[in-house]
Amino acid sequence: MIDVRLTAVSKRFAKSSDSAAVDDVTVTIGAGEFFTLLGPSGCGKTTTLRMVAGFYFPTSGHIHFGDDDVTHWTPNKRDTGMVFQNYALFPHMTVAQNVAYGLKVRRVSRADQARRVTEALEQVHLAGYGDRRIDALSGGQQQRVALARALVIRPRTMLLDEPLSNLDAKLREETRAEIRRIQRESGTTSIYVTHDQAEAMAMSDRIAVMESGRVQQVGTPHEIYYKPANAFVARFIGRSNVLSLPVTGATDDSVAVRLPGGATIDVGAPAGHGLGAGDTALVSARPEHIALGGDDDTAAMRGRISHVEFTGMATNISVDVDGNEVMAALIDAPAGLQLGDVVGLRLVPERLWVVKP
Amino acid sequence: MTAATRTAPAWAAALGRRLSGGANSRWFPYLLVLPLVLVLWGFVVQPMFATFRESVSANGSDNYLQFLSSSGVARESLFTSLFISAASVLLCGIVGVAMAFLLKRFHFRGRRLIEAFILVPAALPPLIGAVSFQLLYSNIGIVPRGLQALLGTEKPVLAFDGIAGVLVVHTFTMYPFFFLAASAALAGMDPSVEEAAYNLGAGRFRVWRTVLLPMLTPALISASLLVFMTSLASYTAPLLFNVSQTMTMQIYINRTNGDLPMASAYASVLGIVSIIFLLAMRWYEGRRNYQSQSKGISAVRREITNPIGRWLAPLASVLATLVLLAPVAAIALVAFSEDRSWTTEVLPPTYTFENFVTIFTDPKAFEPILNSVQMSLIAVVGCVVIGVLIAYAVRRLKFVGRGLLDVAVMIAWALPGTVVAINLISAFSTGNAFSFGQVLVGTFWILPLAYFVRFLPIVFRSSSATLALIDPSLEDAARNLGASWLRAFYTITVRLMLPGVLAGALLAFVHGVGEFVASVLIYTSSTVPISVAINNRMYSFELGTAAAYGMLQVLLIFVVMWFSGRLESSRTATRRAEQWTN
Known about the structure:
By secondary structure, chain A is an alpha+beta fold. Helix content of chain A is about 25%, strand content about 35%.
């Protein structure tokens, strides 16, 4: 097992020289870690992955696999196993021939080839499918062949480029658990690219959230959800209200802010937040950390309901607070909430977090 | 030692290194493209300049001034060529569009019969096509003589000669350009647009004029340009119907009279006109917009309800089918006739297997077949290697000048065969860097080279079309699994391109075996190709043997067409697989 390090990696494409596709990315992916690059389309996550695979070379910066500086190695020398978004299975070969391709290139003996192909197909639950034609498989089966083909070469790193995006919702959930199981068994350092935050949260050891070519935050799913680094991350991961609140005081790891209702509360803040009394803090509050309650004096804020939607698990409401819309997800909301009702809202202070703009 | 020879091994080593690994370095494309550029420059572009130099070598611009003088053969020939081309466009347009409407819009008995044979006249090799029409419709032809015998007139009835004969050949062999373009446009047209016009009260003629024709315009303009270019390049029809004042004929006449500078002037003018048409076509197809907005209902064929039409339709279908098959039938009939026995009769009087027996038993008679096959095979190998690589470079690599590479191949396609021949004569009648200092004219190699230049675009086009259907990430996947660029290229990309490449190679081979236009200008007596042998036999009035050679060419074409049809179905299978993986 090896770690993968990206040091100040940037990529500019010839034609769009004004903005970088990937801008000064530095991350270290630990040995055996399942690491996800998450971001909206066009954020540079796939370009980053393709640089790790060797299909693009960085304009500047370095990529290390363990002790090897692989920045300018060609793809075929890197020993990575990549699963492509559209699987990229060779249509003129059978399932077994597809899986054996990398072994053949590596001059693995015929007997070993056969054994390892069989093992890999068993691992992805496709034992006995070796002689099938690729076009005789369903989308989910093709996806697993692609996985087996990447796994069978026992790569130093697995690279997965949105491998689930072509599957239907149910299959997607089954397969993501399957991929994670296989990754744990093999212990291969893996880099996973997706735009689906639920997928990223469910699978990853750590996530790098990317936007406009830059890494916005690197952290565990828990950190990213509860302690988003900035307003973009807060809004991109799940849903979040980002409230602008006046600061009345601050310590190293917390900021005191005044709520619209008049009360002052302490909110957790990242070290080096640089806020002081008189500034305005951006506070991320997840809808599920906002509840109904309080009258004029005790409520964090009050407003008129502008939208109600019952989803079964929760009742989502939007409340108009002095012209700003605040979303709340209410568990066990009282029946009969009406548009136009004036309600008070309570916050869970320990779940709030100060974010950068 | 010069700098060039010292760095050559270094270049080769670098190329080897790059091929085995670094296909994604910025300068890898240039290493791959450089040899391709040299080939295209050396054998397509540079010979054009050589021709131009040749044309002004003897007496400066005098040769070109002849095109301006009002009483010259040059000006007359240019105008005749342009007139024939314009008339061909008109005639082919009328026949092609009418056939497309009839077959795509109406349902009548015998429709399928016509559809099955509609492309047969166009599939004939140029010389055989022209010969068959001469045998059928000229004043020595079967039809005029038949009518003469039937009506008891003194002269053959409805005999086509001169420019009229040329136009008949052009119409029969080139109307498919219009037919195919108009059929595709009609198939893609939303019938409700037409229905809307009827609904608003327009009559049939008005709908035609105001709705259908304007919607067909893009397809018709493309087809017009194509027919114009092909007519301009046409050489066998003027040759057989004795129209000596066309550009192509003047090239041939001046060349055989030894006035190479004048032939070169004609070739330069014809080459430039052809390239202008090529560029016009590319420009037009680039800006053309497809206007089918709605999907779902496709055009419904109308039943012919008129009772006279109902009776007439099958009759006309049978007649049309006979006309379509007549050229092949005429060649087949004459192939079994005895040489020199057919003089003034309607049909050849005596029949024999002797012609075929001679071809296959007399080594001298068999030699042209051997020559053609051998030279075409050599050319096809070159076309495949270079054509596939150019297709790959144009479709998959990013480099400065990609568009120019594409245009250079298409220039080879646009240049008339006569011009290609003159270009090669001008460039390779002395030692040339691209022939390693060897004189090629008068040797075995000049014809394979001409075939290579003429048919490279065929292989390029079909390779390129197949490559467009192959997902580029397949090659990435192979590279990721550890394959070198070269290995990924031949185990994945080339393997998947194979059906298209093979189809293109077969077509190029057939064209090579049937090639006449360039061959007749540059063949050597030791490497006479089939078509030149046919032409020589025709001159010595050995019609039977000539037709027998032609029949063999036609048989080869039918076999290849059948085989390509099978390839086509396996190609659609690949395409289906492709859709699955996407």
